[in-house]
Amino acid sequence: MTTIVSGADSQTLAAALARELDVSLATAEYNRFPDGELLAAAPDFDDDRAIVVASTVSSDAHIELLQLQDAVREAGADEVVTVLPYMGYGRQDKAFEAGHPISARAVARAISTGADRVLTVTPHEEAVCEFFEPTATAIDAAGRLAEPLPDDLEDPVFLSPDAGAIELAETVRDAYGDGETDYFEKKRHSGTDVEITPSDVDVAGRDVVVADDIIATGSTMSESVSVLQDRGVGRVFLTCVHPLLADNAVTKLSRAGVEAIYGTDTIERPMSDVSVAPSLAEHL
Ligand code: R5P
């Protein structure tokens, strides 16, 4: 039998997955010692197969995941499957400067030590799956991003803010069933300073859905929206798999005049309208 154990930041998705798979959900406890150290535990876990669901949205979430993997093994699990709905540090997948770490590899190695199998949702680059041992399974949730879009989009364009996300935009368009696709070019100057060079796609009076894997600071999206508005766009909808929405991203995007922001429950935010639970369940 299987029991699901959730990290503190993935409780809604873990519950949805338990319903989807019709398996039980263990109680998990998340405590902190006076010196700041964490203690995540699954006191009533008693099964031979565990699915630990934890988005590593912070360094604490990483530690918590390692502790839960260890706790269920200690409690007798023969198989520990780890579901990383959002893989933190996944974007640092190369040593970009001399002396820098490949952080994605470092965290993947640590997580692999406690897992027989790892699944992750739409990693920034699929190659990060190879940092896990055995190689992690990447689940593509992009097709689900069409679900909350209004069905009256006016002559829609599905746009990615950079060439790397064009396939994602195409997947959303295919799932929506109608519309053109295009992409902008992006140059990143710093964590929050990005420069968007538009394509010559005609967006005047048309509804545009800008699709990306992650919205982090919102800089990529807000620059894209500003370029679209200069060209007389109709409504602008933003969609992403991982709504990280760090710092003041929501305010920044609201001020940019977007109609709506949609994301999935890989990261639990008020705009996590789409659940990836059915996509994960197909692989569990
Ligand atoms: C990077 O290439 C990703 O696909 C996203 O475009 C990026 O993470 C978004 O970051 P931000 O919201 O901080 O601009």
UniProtKB/TrEMBL annotation:
Residues 3-112 form the Ribose-phosphate pyrophosphokinase N-terminal domain. It catalyses: D-ribose 5-phosphate + ATP = 5-phospho-alpha-D-ribose 1-diphosphate + AMP + H(+). Pathway: Metabolic intermediate biosynthesis; 5-phospho-alpha-D-ribose 1-diphosphate biosynthesis; 5-phospho-alpha-D-ribose 1-diphosphate from D-ribose 5-phosphate (route I): step 1/1. One of its GO terms (cellular component) is ribose phosphate diphosphokinase complex. Its main location: cytoplasm. Gene3D superfamilies: 3.40.50.2020. Pfam families: Pribosyltran, Pribosyltran_N. Coiled coil: none annotated. ATP binds at residues 35-37, 91-92. The keyword Phosphoprotein does not apply. One of its GO terms (biological process) is purine nucleotide biosynthetic process. Keywords: ATP-binding, Cytoplasm, Kinase, Magnesium, Metal-binding, Nucleotide biosynthesis, Nucleotide-binding, Transferase. The active site is at 186. D-ribose 5-phosphate binds at residues 188, 212. It is found in: Cytoplasm. SUPFAM superfamilies: PRTase-like. Its EC number is 2.7.6.1. Binds 2 Mg(2+) ions per subunit. Involved in the biosynthesis of the central metabolite phospho-alpha-D-ribosyl-1-pyrophosphate (PRPP) via the transfer of pyrophosphoryl group from ATP to 1-hydroxyl of ribose-5-phosphate (Rib-5-P). Belongs to the ribose-phosphate pyrophosphokinase family. Class III (archaeal) subfamily. This is Ribose-phosphate pyrophosphokinase. The gene is prs.
